[in-house]
What we know:
Blueprint: E1 9-12, E2 18-21, E3 29-30, H1 41-56, H2 59-71, E4 90-94, H3 99-114, H4 119-131, E5 137-141, H5 142-149, H6 165-171, H7 178-194, H8 199-221
Antiparallel strand pairs: 1-2, 2-3, 4-5
Amino acid sequence: MSEVMPGIHVEYDDGYNPTIISPNAEFGLSFYQTRFSLMDVDVYKRFLDNAISRFRHSVTYKKYKGYLMNDLGMDHCQLLSNISGEDADIEMHHNFLTIFDIALMITEHTINTTGYISTFDLVQLLKEAHKQNMIPIVMLSKTAHQMYHNNDDMYIPAQMCFGYWIDLLTTYHRGITKKIAYQVLNYIDHSINNTAIDAKTMVSMLELKDNLESWANYNEYGDTRRIGVISLPENNDAEWEDAK
Length: 244
């Protein structure tokens, strides 16, 4: 039987959010994060960074990279096509939306629609978004990846992205901030104006463009009603993780 730690107890609010309280701590530690608990920018950033770190160190993340390289044959650098995984490290590049942008968008969407989110929820939703191939991915050699991040003007067109990234933005549209909207709008404009795009993709990108600014404005200035509960797909991580 576990012993109760002296001076430490758990309280529950009206939403059944367990919070650890201690007389030695100025603030309690809640299991779920809410709009109120994430008002401090530094706290919000630590929450996102922690979830991203957990996701990057998960077996699912490593398995997904293996799935792209081994099952789908994406084992060459897409900028330096003569370099394969046998010649150098090939890395997954989250194109035009960083993993931080994606984590922020998912978190904002979840808080705007349910009112709360935990680290475990965010990690699981990041896993599912990758397993559903909703992330804009470009495979790059380590050198090409470093070149991209060291050059703000470097651009990789939409045609080179793997993933249903339009579905990502549509699914999590209640989390699109004005900054993310402008990033995507600029990317779409650049893709349309500088590269050849097939008609179907062009239509999808133009439809998304029409919605982005209105979504961002609504999220920034609209109401804050809660309209549901967190919807996590059935956990099938066993398919992606080694048996214990």
